[in-house]
Design a protein that fits this description.
222 residues; alpha/beta; Rossmann fold; five-stranded parallel beta sheet; three-stranded antiparallel beta sheet; 9 helices; 46% helix; P-loop_NTPase; ATP binding
């Protein structure tokens, strides 16, 4: 299957993408991984991306599209893939359609993870990270530490990242609504969108997603 995963920040796309890719035996292709791999390997696209990033500029669509094209052409993606973070706007969606047409394939589904905006803010703004670079993450509501402000594992100080502050989260949501959300209507016009609630336990969301994708599994190109 060839799937695009969409949803607002805090919808749990990364978590669900990993589970779904494993269950469907297809590679999980995330924009973040693409950038890290290309930059660490010193590819031409990676060097271009790094130039823009160092200058504090947005990486042009053509660079991101080029990275995605190269990754989708790898042998492990021949029978399908799950795209997470790409396409991010209408231009990238149109480019993806072109890439798939060239290869004689098509998308099977666009899985839309739906989460109320207040829940997104609650999920992200409640996160607390350990300063000791241990990677331990807590949440003031869902997974609170035993002692407020202290990591249960290593005793390090817990803090809230700038990106997780409520005002920043709401700005990220505005960008999502403006730039990325329109691709949902773009794909609805192609009959590809399946929408599920991303509320509840991770396993429950995965079950809903697998059931929704099961209806799309019989489409041409699966």
């Amino acid at each position: 299957m060839r799937i695009v995963l969409v949803g607002p920040p805090g919808a749990g796309k990364g978590t669900q993408a990993a589970y779904l890719a494993e269950n469907l035996s297809i590679p999980h292709i995330s924009t973040g991984d693409l950038f890290r791999a290309n930059i660490s390997q010193g590819t031409q696209l990676g060097q271009k991306a790094q130039e823009y990033m160092r200058a504090g500029k947005l990486v042009p669509d053509e660079v991101t599209i080029g990275m995605a094209r190269d990754r989708m052409e790898q042998p492990d993606a021949a029978d399908g893939f799950l795209l997470d973070g790409f396409p991010r706007n209408i231009g990238q969606a149109e480019a993806l359609d072109g890439i798939l047409r060239e290869s004689g394939t098509r998308l099977n589904a666009v899985l839309d993870l739906e989460v109320p905006e207040d829940e997104v803010v609650k999920r992200i703004a409640g996160r607390r990270m350990c300063r000791n670079d241990s990677g331990h993450i807590f949440h003031v509501v869902y997974t609170p530490p035993k002692t407020e402000g202290v990591c249960d594992v290593c005793g390090g100080e817990l803090y809230q990242r700038e990106d997780d502050r409520e005002d920043t989260v709401r700005k990220r949501l505005e960008v999502y609504h403006t730039e990325t959300e329109p691709i949902i209507d773009y794909y609805k016009a192609q009959g590809l969108v399946v929408t599920i609630s991303a509320l509840g336990k991770v396993s429950e969301v995965t079950r809903r997603a697998m059931e929704a994708l099961g209806h799309a599994a019989g489409q041409p190109g699966a």
